[in-house]
Structure formats: C-alpha cells, structure tokens
Amino acid sequence: MVATDKVTGKLSSTLSWVKNSVSHTVSQMASQVATPSSLHTTVASSTASLSSPSSASPTQLSPDDVELLAKLEEQNRLLETDSKSLRSVNGSRRNSGSSLVSSSSASSNLSHLEEDSWILWGRIVNEWEDVRKKKEKQLKELVRKGVPHHFRAIVWQLLCNAQNLPIKEQYSELLKMTSPCEKLIRRDIARTYPEHEFFKEKDSLGQEVLFNVMKAYSLVDREVGYCQGSAFIVGLLLMQMPEEEAFCVFVKLMQEYRLRELFKPSMAELGLCMYQFECMIQEQLPELHVHFQAQSFHTSMYASSWFLTIFLTSFPLPVATRIFDIFMCEGLEIVFRVGMAILQMNQAELMQLDMEGMLQHFQKVIPHQLDSGPDKVIQAAYQVKYNAKKMKKLEKEYTTIKTKEMEEQVEIKRLRTENRLLKQRIDTLEKESASLADRLIQGQVTRAQEAEENYLVKRELATVKQHIEETSVQLEQAQSTIRQLQQPFAKGNPRYTEESILQLERELVQARLKEAESQCALKEMQDKILYMEQRNTSLPDENNVVRLQEELIGVKLREAEALTGLKELRQQVRDLEEHWQRHLARTAGRWKDSPRKNAASELQDELMSVRLREAEAQAELRETRQRMLELETQNQIHSNQLRRAELEARNLQDRLHVLSNQNKMLHSELQETKRKQAEIECKNKEEVMAVRLREADNIAAMAELQQQISELEIQKEEGKVQGQLNNTDSSQYIRDLKDQIADLKHEVIRMRFQSSLKKTFFKLR
Known about the structure:
The chain is mostly helical and 765 residues long. It contains 28 helices and no strands. It comes from Danio rerio. This is Ecotropic viral integration site 5 protein homolog isoform X8.
C-alpha cells in the first residue's frame, strides 16, 4: 500500500510537468505560422521530451510556470467536460499500457483524462498522415467528442489540407490592392461578434484582421466577392489562428466544403439545402411539417442562417465551435443532422405556436436550451436518419424543378414579349384605321369639292361656248355686211364706201379681240379641266368610290328610317295630346256626374295612362333601334376600312413580290450580261491572237518574197552580164524577170494593205 502511494505521487508530479511542457509547445505553434514540417518537428520534440520525464524535475518549476499551469488546467476543465470523451481516452490509456494506477478521487481522475487527451491529440498531430489513412473512423469519433482548444488551429488546417497553400504567399500582396467590396466589409465589421472581446472595440486588432481576410478573399474570388454571413466563419477562424492561416483555411472551406456555392449571388446551393432539409422534415416530422405549412412558416425563415454561418449566429459560441469541429471533418451533413435534432427536441412547443411565436422560439428559447453544453444536441444529431443517396436523389429532383421553373420563366417572358408586340400591333392597326377613316373623310370632302369645281367649270365652259357661238354669228353678220357694202363701192360711191369700210374694220377688230379673249378663256377652261381630271385620277379608284357610295346609300337609308320613326312618334304625340285634351274636357264636370260615369272616366284615365306608357315604350324602342342602326353603320364602316386596309396590304405585298421578281430578273440579266461580256472578251482575245499570228505569217511571207525579189534581181544582173557576154536573146528572159518582180511587189503591197486594215478594225473595236 505504501509503495502504491509512492508510485501515485511520483506519477502525478510527472504528468503535471508533461502538461506544462505540452501547453508551452502548443501555444508556440498557435502563435506563429507553422508549416507541416515544423508542426511535425515541434510535436516530435514535445513527445521526445515526454518520453524522458526524469530529465527535469517538477520541483524545478518557477512560480510563473505554476500560475500558467493552473490557468491552463482551468480552461481545459471548461472545454473538456464530455464524459464519453473521458471514458474513451481512459480506454485508450489502458490499451496503450500507460495506465499504471487509478485515482481514488473524481478530481484526480478528470485531471488524468485531460492529460491523456492532450497526449493523444499530440500523437495524432505528429502522425497525421497515418491516422488519416488508417484510423479515419476513430478520428471522426474523437472530433465528434471535441478538439482541445489549443489544438484547433493545427487540427483544422490539417482537416482541410490548408497548411501549405501557394495562395498564402500572395496574401500580403492582396492587402495592398483595392477591393470594390471594402465599403460593405467596413459596414458589416461592427455587426460581426459585437459582444466578443476580440471584435467588440472599433478599429481594434480583431476588426482589422477580419477586414484584411475578407478583403483578400473578395479579390481572389471576384464572382462571390463578399457576403455578410461569411464574416462570422472568418471571425471564428481568427479566434483560433493568425490571419494568414485563417485566410488559407477560409479559401479551402469555400472551395471544397460547398460554401462558395452557398455564398454566390444566386445562392442556388442554399435553395438546394432548404429543399433537402424540408424533405427531411416532411419525412421524419410530418406533423410539424403540416403545422409549418399551415402557418406559412417557410424553411428559409429559420434555417438559412444555420447553413450560411454553421450555427455561429444562432447558438452559443462554445456549442457552435464544437459543431464547427465536426463540420471541418464531415462537411454540411452535421448541419442537416443538428437542425433535425433541434426540431425533434422542440416539436411539442413549436406545434402550439403561430408564426411569430415560432420565430421568437428559434431566436430566444433554443439558444438558452444549449447553455448546458453541446453533448445532448450532438448525441441527438447522430440519431437522426441521414441517407446520402437520398440526398443525391433530392438534389437531382431540385435541379429538375429549377430547370422547369427556368423554362417556364423563359416561356412566360416570351409570351409577355409576344403580348407586348400584339398590343403594339393593335395600336398600330388602330392608328392605321383612324388614318384610313381620316383619309376616307378627306377624300369624300375633296371629291365633293372637286365635283363642285367641275360643275362650275362646266358652267363656265358652256358660257364660253355660247359666247363663241354668238361671236361667230356676229362675225358672219359682219362679213355679210361687208359684202353688201362692197357692192355699192363697186357701183361708184367711194366716200360712203370708205366710211362704211372703216366702221366695219373697227367692228371687225373688236370682234377679233373678243374672239381672242374667248379663245384665251377657252384655253384656261381646258387647262382647268385637265387639272381637274388629274386631280380626279389621284382620288380613290372606282371600287372604293362604289363602296363609299354604298356606305352613303346605307347611311341615307338609315337616316330615312330614323326620320320616318320620328314622324310617327310626332304623330303619336299629337294623338296623345288630342286624347289628353278630351280627357281634360271630360274630367272638368266629373263632380256633377253620377258614380257610374265617374267609374267610366276613371277607366278612360287608366287607358290614357296606358297609352302614354305605350308611347314612351315605343319612343324608347325607336331610340334603341336608332342606336342599333348607328352601331351597325359604325361596324360596317370599320369593316370596310379593315377590308380596304387588307386590300392595300395585299396590293403592297403583290407589288413587293413583283419588285422582288423584277430584281431577280434584273440580277439574272446582269449575270447573263457579265457572262456574255466575258465570252466576248475571250473571243476578242482569241481573234487578236489569231490576227497577230497571221500578221507574223505575213511578215515571214513578205521577208521570203523580198528575198525572192533580191534573188531575181541578182539573176537579172547575172542575165544581163551573160547576155552581153554571149550576145544571146536575153531580152525575153529580162522581161520575164521584170514580170515576176512586179507580181511579187503587188503581192507585198496587198499583204501590207490587209495588215493595216486589220489593225484599224481592232482599234475601232
């Protein structure tokens, strides 16, 4: 028994020294940037020092070391309260052979388990690669029971493989750049952990490093930029590690933990998470799901912040940190599990609340339920049914639904566009209809004016013709008078004859002036008639005129019917007035008559009132018919306008078709002309080549002929010499030679003439 007590005391002192050395080592690793090799080296050195406890005595600790050790023990007691974790670590001590004695008190047992947890996590960090590959299941169990506070910075970097990222070297350069999101980040900095000591004060170190990390990421990922919920995650990372390591871990989380899709401007991944979570509620908590639907309490109203901040804004910070440990190891699955566990634990209370009450319950009641610690909710979370294959199936269903919604939105947008175009077309047609109506009215007015002008011109023309006839008659009379006066002049009365002739000449001049005026007036009238005919040709064609005449006839017929009805109504009014006068005459002495006569007069009064009502009804009927006729007239006018508009449109289409056909024909003719021109150019080139060849042949022939001429001249000279020598009859030979020379010269001249003619012909072409 004494030996056992001695061993127990010695072991307690040794473990205290071990804890002090490990605390010192871990604090150094958390305060500086640690590469994987430095991490392994540090932990290896700590384990090496642990393996030889006899090299330093616990009695050599200074008072400062003792005080530091006491503070570390107090913090570890607050963080490490999981009884299951203690039992698991105690079992690992027994398996490793490190358990030598068992303490008799609960406080000494807790201290031993904390020390074993430190030793265990030190070995895990030192042998991380082997543990991650070979003991992944045991590692998950340890993470679920909580990572010690001083190991979180190292373990989180190792869990997400962020310990040696190349982007870490760019961090200082990113801080020198300017981000378009700086104003938003500055605005939201004060809203991030407003009660935490590290971030509470304005322009403190915590707010500055948080701003640096958010700014650097907004420059790295410009598509996401900055989202408010991400600042809480970065703030938690900065509570555990320096800003460079926090930046690297945050980049890894965004890239490999689906957070980037959650924080994109479209937030499509958040919609998927809401859909999957709602399906889990419908399957596992159907009554609560029906209650949510009845209260219009949508999943995004309470669960969106769970996924965006991993419960950091909804739960107490120690609880959210424990959940974040598991998130770093297992991903978003823990968010689904914890969310379902929270709903299962509060189902009874939520079923009795309305929408506002449920919102208050989620914001105020549930966070206080977790003040005791995260063990209960984490234990309940791993009892929730979670099927990864079904989640994949739900993801496909959500993608299909969203695709259909996008197609429907596209179709709705297309229909709205078509509707807008149809409205524009209706407005255009209404404007065209109004324009056609205006043109029709203007045409009718213009046609009436032209008809009136035409009538006036015809009257003036008739007046001019009558004036011309009168003038011609006067001219004939003057001529006959001249003939009569010429007879006395012939008989020898010259004075009388001269005076008469002068008078007649003056009358003749006046008559000719009048005739010239008449001719001018007639020409003006003819010009005016031509102008009126040209104006008439510009008016609507005969078909339109016929339609307008038909419309006018219909309107006049309806007007006649209306006038007839009005006459009938007036006649009925006159009849009623006569009856009324008679009735007044009868009722004037009614008080003197007997009761029988009074009854008859009352019946006559009723008959009179009935006739009056009948007249009123007939008047209303006539007025209704008149309105109906007016509406029919308007309908017919509008239908005629539409018919004319369609006819003009068809005419324009036919004209366009004819013009397009003419354009095609002209284009084909142009192509054919180009082709013929090319053929003609080819033929001309061939002819030129042939002429040049013939010219070369002619030149060669001319050269041969000239050579023959020179040979003949030589022969001639030789013949002369021989004739002189031989005194023979050489004159005949000389004449033959001269004839041959003349023929050859004539042939040369003919060939030159032909060559000059051909050259002239090609120049003219």
